[in-house]
Structure formats: structure tokens, C-alpha cells
Design brief:
The chain has a domain at 4-93 and 161-222: Rossmann fold (3-Layer(aba) Sandwich). It has helices spanning 49-57, 100-110, 117-129, 145-157, 175-192, 203-207; strands spanning 4-16, 22-34, 38-42, 64-69, 72-73, 85-88, 163-167, 195-199, 211-216, 219-222. The chain is 31% helix and 28% strand. The strands form two sheets. It has a six-stranded mixed β-sheet with strand order 6-7-8-3-9-10, sandwiched between helices. A four-stranded antiparallel β-sheet has the order 2-1-4-5, with no helix packed on it. It is α/β, with parallel strands linked by helices and 224 residues long. The structure holds adenosine-5'-triphosphate and magnesium ion. The site of adenosine-5'-triphosphate has 10 residues, from helix 1.
Length: 224
């Protein structure tokens, strides 16, 4: 049996709605993700999906409940980086002045590590895997939306994450491109045995994950 990677236990989140009142966004959320497991979360706009995803990675605080990742508690704190967790967003956040290859190398440089032959080799393998090798020396502005998102996916994998939190990664793409990008994402995750939690409005994508839940009226309901 695969090792449990992340356990979220009874998470509750509220926001102030006025000076004296609060509204509860979601409550008693329980999530368990094992190594290599994929989970999808759907739900109406405003149901709190992004807030939940960011809470799981420690980017957003919770009112109560605990999150344990790789046997370590995750707290919302000043350093937003939890080793082993990385993100993919709807908007790709590429550095426009840097080539595709250099964008992939950003996490390595930010971590203060050397860009040695092994790192360059890893980047080239990812570019190949994501069908981006011919673009490696181009600037992001010369790429399509789907290609840009694939660069962002490659950059995420350069961090060797154990868990990827993906917030509507195909939200800015047309249907055909979304399908191609999500298939590539699923296949790279499978290849590297990387777990992920995917927030998406597309139920067909959600159904392909091992677990599929809907966030409705503050509760996370299991659909698969
Ligand atoms: N810091 C905050 N203070 C007050 N309310 C907030 C805060 N952050 C988020 N909210 C509210 O929480 C609700 C859920 O927001 P969230 O972004 O998590 O929704 P979502 O399900 O991801 O929606 P979408 O599908 O549109 O991305 C929204 O009504 C939002 O305004
Ligand atoms: Mg959102």
C-alpha cells in the first residue's frame, strides 16, 4: 500500500463579513492523499476551492483543524514555501524576459542551487516530455496559452515536488488545448509518481482522478 502523503483533518475556514459577523466558507474538511494519488475538486465559483487549496499548502490560514504533510504539520506562516509542495495556477506567471529553458531553471536558481549538467539534463528531459523542446530558447510571448501552461508545468516539476496543488490550470484555455494540457499533466505526474490535487470546473477531467469531490455549501462531498 502507498504511503500517506497528506492528511487534512477537520479544516474549517471563515471570513469576517462585517465588523461583528463572520461567514463560514467551509467546515470539517477531511482529505487524505497517498503517494502517487490524484484528487480533483469541483464546485461553483466562490465555493472556496482556491482558498482550500492554498490552505492545504500553508499559503492560507485555517480557523481550526490540522494539516500534516510527510509527517510534518503545516502551519500558515511567514515562509510560504513548504518543501515538497508546489503549485500550478490558471495564469502561468512565467518571466517574460527569460527563455523557456531559463523559466524552467528559475526554481533551482531561487533555491540557490547550482545549475549543473544534471539540472540542465532534467530540464531538457521535461521539455521533451511536454513537447516543448523546439521552444527552449524562445521567449514565452512567442508561445500559445497551452504551450505557456506546459512551461509552467515543467517549471513545477523542476522542484521535484511530491504533491502539486493545481488551481484551474486549464481555466484560460480552449477545450481542445485544455484536454491536451491536462493529459500531459496527468501523464507526467504518473511518470514521476507525483500526487496532485486538481481544482477544475471540468467534470470529465475530475473523473479521471483517483478521487473526485465537490465543494458544496461549505462541505466537501465525495463523488468518486
Ligand atoms: N481574504 C478574504 N477575505 C474575505 N473573503 C475572502 C477572502 N478570500 C476569499 N474570500 C471569499 O471566499 C469565497 C471563496 O473564494 P475562492 O477564491 O476560494 O473561491 P473559488 O471556489 O476558488 O472560486 P472560483 O471558481 O471563482 O475560482 C469568495 O466569496 C471570496 O470572496
Ligand atoms: Mg478559485
Amino acid at each position: 500500500m502507498n504511503k500517506v502523503l497528506l492528511i487534512a483533518d477537520k479544516l474549517t475556514k471563515s471570513f469576517a463579513s462585517s465588523k461583528t459577523e463572520r461567514f463560514c466558507l467551509w467546515h470539517d474538511i477531511n482529505i487524505e492523499i497517498s503517494e502517487g494519488e490524484a484528487m480533483a475538486i469541483c464546485g461553483e465559483s466562490g465555493s472556496g476551492k482556491s482558498t482550500l487549496l492554498f490552505a492545504l499548502g500553508g499559503l492560507e490560514g485555517v480557523d481550526s483543524g490540522t494539516i500534516c504533510f510527510c509527517n510534518q504539520m503545516i502551519y500558515h506562516h511567514s515562509n510560504p514555501y513548504t518543501p515538497g509542495i508546489s503549485y500550478i495556477f490558471q495564469h502561468y506567471y512565467l518571466i517574460e524576459e527569460l527563455s523557456v529553458l531559463e523559466n524552467l531553471l528559475i526554481p533551482v536558481r531561487v533555491m540557490g542551487e547550482k545549475v549543473n549538467a544534471g539540472v540542465k539534463d532534467q530540464a531538457h528531459r521535461l521539455l521533451l516530455e511536454l513537447g516543448l523542446e523546439k521552444f527552449s530558447h524562445q521567449l514565452p510571448k512567442t508561445l500559445s496559452g497551452g504551450e505557456r501552461q506546459r512551461v509552467a508545468i515543467g517549471r513545477t516539476f523542476m522542484m521535484n515536488p511530491r504533491l502539486i496543488l493545481a488551481d484551474e490550470p486549464t481555466g484560460s484555455l480552449d477545450e481542445q488545448t485544455s484536454l491536451r494540457v491536462i493529459q500531459m499533466f496527468f501523464s507526467v505526474c504518473q511518470k514521476f509518481k507525483t500526487s496532485f490535487i486538481l481544482v477544475t470546473h471540468n467534470e470529465n477531467f475530475a473523473m479521471q482522478a483517483n478521487k473526485y469531490c465537490r465543494l458544496e455549501q461549505g462541505e466537501l462531498k465525495r463523488c468518486k
